[in-house]
Design goal:
This protein is an alpha/beta fold. Helices cover 38% and strands 14% of the residues. The longest helix has 27 residues.
Length: 488
């Protein structure tokens, strides 16, 4: 099975199977409508855009659209484009999964973003660096202020009075509804509004999950052998042990999970491992889900930069393989800006009420006005447009980074570049620390691979993690030149 995506117009996640391309496309669109992933009124990409992204002839897509329109699945009007038609046929209603009784979890006997304590001492003392190449941060100078202001005005004008009260700890229904549609369409996530909890960032969501897991009797959560220390520390503060799971170029070594004893959950970044950059292979995805089913465990899927894929076959969310065994975490921190403090969890049915109660017992945190604005931003298509524009911008930076390394430091291997906002530069053995000292001397904020290593994990090849998202366009060329001076 191949996952194919549209990268022009609205993002669209389709599973194409079979030999006939037109038939496969029609079957995938019918299934997306029938299952409720594509809801009535959703605008589809133009035939030209979808054909370019799927590697099909435009006539193939146009013929598929025309036939589905004749069948009543789609509508097409001049100036309105091709949209999903409203249907009274019950086949087109969202599928209701059979209730899955909660299986007891076994007990034992920020979106990734770099925090201050992750910095080397030299950079912590030096203050703001001249060139910020820390990983896990977007270009906040590109925040779409005009479109956001337009969405805010429309959202606040239409907001009901109760939007300014305390509300539901799950978050505003307007945002949860918009997120359910977007995540199903763009990331292949099985989502319903009542199973979404809005939170103020990935760390907030992980804190809530850690609390619920501990109360359920879980005492250990597996984590990647390389990742953010702040996430490990947060789980430890919840009373959980965090044993390391191995990594290689195929992502998390999920085959190790069965031999790790009574862990109740595992935290992973399947679409683009942070920081080493690999994507979890289909076989390992299946192995992770098989472990969760057989052990009654949970997979905590951090999809922190899932929208930013470049020249690889895109990878859908792991959650789609088993929505009752995977907790999906998403965030606007990388796609828009961390200052919005907007993130979300899509939860198994047997966890949704517990997590919402845990959030309500602490605080609500996420402001209703930001939630309403983001809901309008999603529904209007402005979010899709912004993500596409940033995808192109980050890809250009990635390409310029790869070209500069090839020209100035050809002995350095660049890894983890198929997606995301960072790359790993593999250095000659024994040079990681000296490179970091040189970077600090040149005012370049940069972290080594070893900074992300779990205390129990063995070292890997020396390297530095380069975030190419943070510098604004006006500073990117200077940052790239400074980095080359460090590497030469």
């Amino acid at each position: 099975m191949a996952n194919e995506w549209a990268t022009f117009g609205s993002d669209l996640h389709l599973d194409l199977t079979g030999r006939g391309r037109r038939k496969a496309l029609m079957d995938a669109l019918r299934e997306a409508v029938r299952s409720g992933r594509l809801t009535a009124g959703t605008r589809l990409p133009s035939s030209r855009s979808l054909a370019a992204d799927l590697g099909m002839a435009r006539n193939t897509v146009a013929d598929a659209y025309a036939e589905l329109t004749a069948e009543g699945w789609l509508t097409a009007r001049q100036g309105s484009g091709t949209r999903v038609a409203p249907r009274s046929d019950p086949r087109a209603e969202p599928r209701r999964r059979a209730a899955v009784p909660p299986r007891p979890l076994p007990s034992a006997g920020a979106t990734p973003g770099v925090h201050a304590h992750d910095l080397p001492p030299g950079l912590r003392m030096a203050g703001v660096p001249a060139y910020d190449l820390l990983a896990g941060r977007p270009d906040v100078a590109s925040f779409p202020r005009g479109d956001w202001l337009k969405a805010a005005r429309k959202a606040l004008t239409a907001a009901p009075n109760d939007a300014f009260g305390y509300g539901d700890p799950r978050g505003r229904i307007e945002l949860r509804t918009a997120l359910a549609e977007y995540l199903a369409r763009a990331r292949g996530v099985h989502a319903r509004p009542d199973r979404i909890v809005v939170c103020s960032g990935f760390v907030h969501g992980l804190q809530l999950m850690g609390r619920v897991l501990y109360e359920r009797g879980v005492r250990a959560v597996g984590v990647d052998s390389f990742g953010l220390r702040v996430h490990r520390d947060l789980l430890v503060r919840q009373g959980l042990r965090v044993p390391a799971v191995g990594l290689d170029e195929q992502g998390t070594r999920t085959e190790e999970l069965r031999g790790m004893g009574a862990i109740g959950a595992v935290l992973m970044t399947p679409a683009h491992q942070f920081p080493l950059g690999g994507a979890l292979t289909p076989a390992r995805r299946a192995a992770a889900v098989d472990w969760a089913r057989s052990a009654g465990g949970l997979i905590l899927e951090d999809d922190y930069d899932g929208e930013f894929r470049y020249d690889r076959q895109p990878v859908g969310a792991l959650q789609g393989l088993d929505p009752e065994r995977v907790v999906y975490f998403g965030t606007a921190s990388k796609s828009l800006a961390p200052g919005l403090r907007l993130a979300w969890m899509v939860l198994p049915e047997h966890l949704a009420d517990e997590v919402a109660a845990a959030k309500g017992n602490i605080d609500w945190v996420s402001g209703s006005t930001e939630q309403l604005t983001f809901a309008e931003f999603l529904a209007s298509g402005a979010y899709d447009r912004h993500v596409r524009a940033m995808r192109l911008r980050y890809r250009r930076r990635r390409d310029q980074l790869v070209a500069a390394v090839a020209a100035h430091a050809p002995g350095i291997r660049v890894r983890g570049i198929a997606a995301g906002l960072h790359a790993v530069l593999e250095l000659p053995p024994g040079t990681e620390q000296s490179t970091l000292r040189t970077a600090a001397a040149h005012g370049v904020a940069l972290l080594g691979v070893d900074r992300f290593r779990h205390p129990d994990a063995p070292p890997v090849a020396d390297g530095v993690v380069v975030g190419y998202g943070t510098p604004p366009d006006s500073a990117w060329s200077g940052a790239l030149e400074a980095l080359m001076r460090v590497l030469i």
